[in-house]
Specification:
Layout lengths: L16 H29 L10 H11 L3 H16 L3 H4 L3 H21 L12 H24 L11 H32 L1
Length: 196
């Protein structure tokens, strides 16, 4: 039930344009639903929308499954979300959706650095414990890399200065969102295995 790892040196038959379009539409659509749900939840409970990202788990798992191809799969959803919210380019970077954009760019890099370190990031959907540890570690790295990338934009947008008071809750909420997403997937995989 496992799949081959999606690496830069992938020698399998290339996917068709239709397959890529379906993946982009599906992932972007799910991401928009998650980001809109996030906005609705924070609107109802008056939570800090900058910190909790419901789409974080989807972004990290897409990077695990599709590598660098996850970026063009997810960017249409983030762009449409920005249009729906009416963000100006400078405003999106200071929002939760801006953090989702940074994570989308950084998540494939997180898995790439793990491969550079000799960690096997083979895509295996059997639900083994090792797989979830790898995804969780990549999630921590992606969240940290996204914060660093946002701080590097400080020269262009001075309101995005990185501080511990911003970084700490952002990483924790990202990992919490990823953990919830993984628990849901583990449940789905176990139901699939029982049905077989």
């Amino acid at each position: 039930m496992g799949l081959n790892s999606k690496t830069d040196d992938d020698t399998r038959t290339p996917d068709s344009a239709k397959t890529h379009a379906i993946r982009a539409a599906t992932l972007s659509g799910i991401l928009i639903v998650l980001l809109q749900s996030h906005a609705a939840i924070c609107g109802a409970f008056d939570c800090n929308r900058d910190y909790v990202i419901l789409g974080f788990g989807l972004i990290v798992l897409a990077a695990w499954l599709y590598g660098w191809r996850s970026i063009p799969y997810l960017l249409p959803g983030i762009a449409l979300q920005a249009i729906l919210e009416g963000y100006a380019p400078a405003e999106i970077l200071s929002s939760a959706d801006g953090h989702a954009l940074m994570v989308t760019l950084c998540a494939p890099f997180a898995f790439t650095t793990m491969r550079w370190a000799g960690i096997d990031t083979e895509v295996d959907l059997t639900g083994g414990r090792r797989v979830w540890k790898i995804i969780l570690l990549a999630g921590v790295k992606a969240s940290a890399f996204a914060l660093i990338l946002r701080s590097l934009l400080d020269d262009l947008f001075p309101t995005h200065t990185l501080s511990f008071s911003i970084a700490y809750p952002t990483v924790l909420s990202d990992i919490a969102g990823l953990a919830v997403f993984m628990l849901i997937l583990i449940g789905i995989f176990r139901l699939m295995q029982r049905s077989e």
